[in-house]
Specification:
10 helices; mainly alpha
Length: about 170
């Protein structure tokens, strides 16, 4: 969900950049992407200055940035009831918002609301499985020239299994 919210903020930023390209507001938008997308504890002093400049000179972009931060806060709640209330409040706000990317995001979150609330309850994602799957795909691509599936399976076990090798392979 957070990735979709960040993409929505970036779409708003790009739209406003096209609109205000040759104006002082456009200068505030320039090089503001990461300042808008980073979480508060990851921002640098330069990011804070850029965010303050955006807040001062470009209210629509700053208002586009706030939903991303409030959604992150809603998803960080530990109590399911508080998280559900915060998420419902965010969804009602995003549905009334006049920015199309956020309206689409609200509709997407509504479709997957049950899974989002399950994440809040359990704090488990499928990120580890996705990362492992990506690694397996990379190994299979590397083994493209093999003539049968046995060497590919052997390569998967060699790279992903905890198989001790004697003598050990040389390291860099």
């Amino acid at each position: 969900m957070q990735r979709l919210a960040s993409e929505a903020v970036d779409k708003v930023r790009r739209t406003l950049w096209r609109e205000y390209r040759d104006s002082p507001q456009g200068n505030a938008i320039k090089r503001s992407r990461w300042a808008l997308l980073r979480r508060p504890w990851n921002r640098t002093d330069r990011d804070d200055e850029k965010l303050y400049e955006v807040q001062r000179t470009n209210k629509p972009l700053y208002r586009g940035h706030l939903p991303n931060a409030t959604l992150a806060d809603a998803l960080d709640h530990r109590q399911p009831e508080q998280a559900r209330d915060a998420l419902q409040e965010w969804l009602s706000w995003a549905s009334r918002c006049r920015r199309a990317p956020f309206v689409r995001l609200a509709n997407t979150i509504r479709k997957h609301e049950e899974g989002t609330l399950a994440y809040i309850n359990e704090r488990v994602t499928n990120g580890i499985v996705e990362g492992f799957n990506n690694r397996l795909r990379m190994i299979c691509r590397r083994a493209f020239g093999f003539h049968s599936e046995r060497p590919v399976i052997g390569m998967l076990f060699l790279c992903c299994g905890d198989i001790p090798l004697y003598p050990p392979l040389p390291t860099h």
